[in-house]
């Protein structure tokens, strides 16, 4: 049987936390639910303490300084505290479905497989949150990929290098990874990224580890959509959006520069990084840099971010 450590970063999630924890703790495969409280300003800490006192499978930790360090650092602390052979993640305002580990039970019989990912659905908890989400992501019922894949195909797909459109990402809520794979690759979340650290982690993970798709046509977890979802607050190609994307792609560009990836992968990441780097420039400097970059790398005009240059 799998022995799984579920890591839940907790920040201002009092109204959702109990449902989230209860959705995970009852699985036979779940060895422990690790709550990492990140200096909430509501009563999340008290709820964490109550839950941990009621069930020995629920363990509560905070950062050594009791401070707020963001989701990346909080998940990293959870990884360090995890004692299970497998690690999963769950956001404190989301919850698992009963089929969460159905695919893993069989797929992990193959020792080559180091991680499994699936699909998540959405539940609209507020009308405002629903409108913001649908404006940005349309009304997609699932966050998933378009076809089954494993190994390098997953990495290529996430970088949009496959002949068929694979899909831009899978959600951490639907990822199960061997802890030994994280230790082997020395992979952790980029603590300098306050947003997109999950996408950054997943792309790096898909390169360093052998991943395989699990249940991708039905949800294995549900994402709660409400008024305070940070990812839906920022308009596409606004200055703040461009800055967040720049930091995300810079993290990947720094990583690819430090590792011996193929030229194809380096160029793909560089073009996206450079697109948002150019978006940070102003006035004549911006347009002269666009012209120069287009002359050196005409492919940049074919990236999905090409229209970002002129805003």
Automatic annotation (TrEMBL):
It comes from the Bacteria. Keywords: Glycosyltransferase, Transferase. Residues 5-123 form the Glycosyltransferase 2-like domain. The keyword Transferase applies. Pfam families: Glycos_transf_2. InterPro entries: Glyco_trans_2-like, Nucleotide-diphossugar_trans. This is Glycosyltransferase involved in cell wall biosynthesis. It comes from Chryseobacterium geocarposphaerae.
């Amino acid at each position: 049987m799998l022995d799984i450590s579920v890591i839940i970063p907790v920040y201002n999630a009092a109204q959702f936390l109990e449902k989230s924890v209860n959705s995970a703790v009852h699985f036979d495969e779940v060895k422990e639910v690790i709550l990492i409280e990140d200096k909430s300003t509501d009563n999340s800490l008290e709820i964490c303490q109550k839950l941990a006192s009621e069930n020995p499978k629920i363990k509560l930790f905070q950062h050594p300084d009791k401070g707020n360090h963001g989701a990346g650092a909080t998940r990293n602390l959870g990884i360090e505290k995890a004692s299970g052979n497998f690690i999963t993640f769950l956001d404190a305002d989301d919850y698992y479905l009963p089929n969460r580990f159905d695919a893993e039970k069989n797929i992990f019989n193959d020792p080559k497989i180091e991680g499994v990912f699936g699909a998540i659905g959405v539940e609209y908890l507020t009308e405002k949150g629903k409108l913001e989400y649908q404006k940005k992501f349309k009304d997609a019922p699932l966050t998933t990929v378009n076809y089954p894949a494993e190994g390098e195909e997953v990495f290529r797909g996430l970088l949009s290098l496959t002949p068929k459109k694979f899909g831009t990402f899978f959600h951490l809520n639907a990822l199960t990874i061997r802890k030994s794979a994280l230790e082997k690759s020395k992979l952790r979340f980029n603590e300098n990224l306050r947003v997109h650290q999950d996408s950054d982690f997943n792309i790096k993970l898909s390169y360093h580890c052998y991943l395989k798709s699990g249940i991708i046509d039905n949800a294995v977890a549900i994402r709660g959509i409400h008024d305070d979802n940070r990812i839906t607050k920022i308009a596409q190609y606004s200055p703040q959006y461009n800055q967040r994307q720049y930091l995300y792609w810079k993290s990947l560009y720094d990583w690819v520069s430090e590792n011996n990836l193929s030229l194809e992968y380096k160029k793909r990441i560089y073009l996206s990084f450079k697109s948002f780097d150019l978006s940070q420039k102003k006035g004549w400097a911006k347009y002269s840099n666009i012209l120069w970059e287009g002359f050196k790398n005409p492919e940049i005009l074919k990236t999905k971010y090409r229209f970002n240059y002129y805003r």
